[in-house]
Specification:
With 671 residues, this protein is mostly helical. It folds into three domains: 147 residues, no CATH class; 157 residues, no CATH class; 299 residues, 3-Layer(aba) Sandwich (Rossmann fold). It has a five-stranded parallel β-sheet with strand order 4-2-5-6-7, sandwiched between helices. The chain has a two-stranded parallel sheet with strand order 1-3. Helix 6 runs parallel beside helix 23. The two termini are 22 Å apart.
């Protein structure tokens, strides 16, 4: 989508036909050197884009992707500079339309071929994404050619495309407000086409028409020239104000919001300026976000005195930047065991342990932990062969635990769902009955799991149950966290009530230690959200991180938010310190030698069916017919659709900024 600064055949100083040679000519004389100057930056940009997408589709870590990203950025800047410079270059009369058509056709055919091959069983994981990028670049050539046409070919089609976008968005809003079973597949497809196809095409067409219209006013006599200049100054002020707003957001800890606002502003400028900067920015951002996280080898399993870590994501270390190899695959094992998890650090640093048996897994519920023989609902998580207790039992005589730590119950209580509901618009504390009424069932399920673990281990092996740290500070002011005071109070109260049920479960199961200090560890180390800036806290509020696996899995935005609302490396370091302090107060806990007794099967069996009683899973993305799920889904949708004035104000505000950018750039071109 380049701007060649040529005169359009239908009038306007910035459009299409060349001053010498016609719309299909080869431009001015210059021979091969002139062609190289015109097409060299474009070819470099194309080669760098393919290299970047291939590297990213292969699944390399961001550290290995950086050098390719740097080359792509340099080539993109060269192309953007060349495209902008051509508008003031008297030697450049216009864009060679035949070459544009040929380049667009070749790229579109190549991209479509790659996509077709990827759907016919060809084993090449890079094909789908690379093919899509090549197809987009090819379509960009045709958009660039379209922007060279006369005003009649721009105004009406552009207006129609934006009208289609508006109609689809209104229909989607009305369907959501009407309730029912959500959006149909056809409406979802229509929404995708409207946002990702019609919207950018319409903006391109109307941007070019707007640039010509404003620039044309300069040529008219009278007072319109100063009027246009004033409009340009107003446009510059609006753009500067939008930039200042993004900076203000960043300074007040709304970093992701600032990045989003800044990205939208830059994309609008890129679209209006008619360069490939918009494609370059989107491509670089997606490739960087979808880069495969680095992986590290698993800690040594140890020998005669191992620490055993059992439970969910708060034990596995989800929230970290790096995971143990083969535990962050969206298509297989997604336990996300991190080398920075506090259990890993303790096993490595405390001389009383000689290794770690790490079976904790992100997303684990009680029926993923309890032994299969102790409950009919027990089953392993996806990508894992057995339940966590069965994994320990299968180790047989090779397992010599000195201490077992377990964190379980949060997923049964629906804690992650609470985070989703509270981040969504609307007061989530009004829905607390959907979660708090479930806590007694959670306590029974956790107690059954503790008893199953106790029966699977020798009687002299101590088991420590770990509560969940309070993630948010108790304060009125909180910058950068999209939660109201009432919502933060609800989350704090819910975590405390959940921990109380976990403590009750330890008493019911008997023989289980409870590490009460862990609930306040983030507060004690001043690492809670709202206690300091988010980037220095021990908990991720919204954490964007990709997964390993196929390119389809890694480029799926639904897999980028799994780090949210989990302790990060700083948080786990605080948890490690709290755990070690607790161990110092109980020196007798680890005084004995390696466990020698056989599991005590005389203990009473846990209550069968207890682990299937909790039913907290009410997320918008996983609807079944349970009352809880439908109730929360309907509430979340209502909170969004009831704010239709805000939803309407956002595109109107963007429309004002877009018009201001057109006015400002038109004045810059004229100068």
């Amino acid at each position: 989508m380049s701007d060649d600064g040529a005169e359009p055949t239908g009038g306007g100083p910035t459009g299409g036909g060349p001053t010498g040679g016609g719309p299909t000519g080869e431009g001015p004389a210059g021979g091969g050197w002139g062609v190289l100057i015109r097409w060299g930056p474009r070819l470099l940009f194309l080669a760098a884009a393919i290299a970047l997408t291939t590297q990213s589709a292969r699944g390399v870590p961001s550290s290995e992707l950086n050098w390719t990203l740097g080359i792509f950025a340099a080539c993109s800047l060269l192309l953007v500079w060349r495209q902008l410079a051509r508008g003031n270059d008297p030697d450049e009369a216009g864009s060679p339309a035949r070459l544009l058509i040929g380049a667009g056709a070749v790229l579109c055919a190549g991209g479509a071929t790659m996509l077709i091959l990827s759907r016919t069983g060809v084993e090449a994981d890079t094909l789908p994404f690379v093919g899509l990028v090549v197809l987009v670049l090819g379509l960009g050539c045709f958009v660039e050619l379209w922007r060279q046409q006369d005003d009649r070919a721009l105004l009406l089609p552009g207006a129609m495309l934006l009208g289609i976008v508006g109609v689809v968005l209104v229909v989607v809003l009305l369907v959501l407000r009407g309730g029912g079973n959500g959006l149909s597949t056809g409406l979802l497809v229509a929404l995708g086409v409207a946002v990702f196809v019609c919207l950018p095409l319409g903006l391109n067409a109307l941007s070019e028409w707007g640039l010509r219209a404003v620039s044309g006013l300069w040529a008219e006599e009278g007072r319109r020239g100063p009027l246009v200049l004033s409009g340009g100054l107003v446009g510059a002020v609006v753009v500067a104000g939008a930039t200042g707003f993004a900076v203000w957001l960043a300074s007040h800890d709304w970093v992701l919001t600032a990045i989003l606002a800044g990205s939208v502003l830059v994309l609008l400028v890129a679209i209006v300026s008619n360069t490939h900067a918009d494609v370059a920015l989107v491509l670089a951002g997606v490739c960087l976000l979808a880069a495969a996280p680095p992986e590290l080898p698993a800690p040594p399993p140890g020998g005669n005195r191992v620490l055993v870590a059992v439970g969910d994501s708060y034990m596995s270390g989800e929230g970290a930047g790096t995971y143990i190899e083969n535990t962050n695959d969206a298509g297989g094992d997604h336990c996300r065991r991190a080398p920075s998890a506090y259990a890993v650090k303790i096993a490595a640093q405390d001389p009383r342990f000689d290794g770690l048996r790490f079976v904790a897994c992100s997303g684990a519920r009680t029926f993923h932990v309890i032994a299969d023989a102790d409950d009919r609902r027990a089953h392993p998580q996806r990508g894992v062969s057995d339940t966590q207790i069965d994994q320990l039992k299968n180790m047989g005589s090779s397992l010599h635990p000195a201490l077992v730590v377990i964190s379980i119950g949060g997923n049964d209580a629906g804690f992650s769902t609470i985070g989703e509901a509270c981040i969504a618009p609307g007061p989530c504390e009004t829905q607390k009955s959907l979660f708090e009424g479930n806590l007694d069932s959670v306590k029974d399920a956790v107690a059954a799991t503790y008893l199953s673990l106790r029966r699977a281990l020798p009687a002299d092996v101590p088991i420590v149950a770990v509560p969940y740290p309070q993630p948010i500070a108790n304060g009125v002011k909180c910058s950068g966290v999209a939660l109201t005071t009432a919502e933060r109070a609800f989350i704090r109260d819910f975590v405390h009530k959940l921990n109380m049920k976990v403590e009750e479960a330890t008493r019911e199961a008997q023989g289980i230690f409870y590490l009460r200090k862990m609930e306040d560890t983030l507060a004690d180390h001043h690492l809670q959200l709202c206690d300091r800036k988010k980037r220095a806290a021990g908990v991720n509020f919204v954490g964007l991180k990709s997964v390993n696996g196929t390119s389809v899995q890694r480029f799926n935005p639904a897999h980028w938010l799994h780090n949210s609302l989990h302790p990060n490396e700083r948080g786990h370091e605080a948890m490690r310190a709290t755990f070690e302090d607790w161990l110092k107060d109980k020196p007798q806990l680890l005084e004995g030698g390696a466990a020698t007794e056989e599991p005590d099967t005389s203990l009473p069996a846990p209550e069968r069916g207890a682990v299937e009683k909790p039913d907290p899973q009410c997320p918008l993305a996983q609807i079944n017919r349970s009352k809880c799920q439908l109730a929360l889904r309907d509430w979340e949708v209502r909170q969004i659709t009831n704010r239709w004035p805000v939803l309407l104000a956002v595109p109107l505000l963007l429309l004002v900024v877009w018009a201001a950018i057109i006015a400002g750039l038109a004045c810059c071109r004229r100068q």
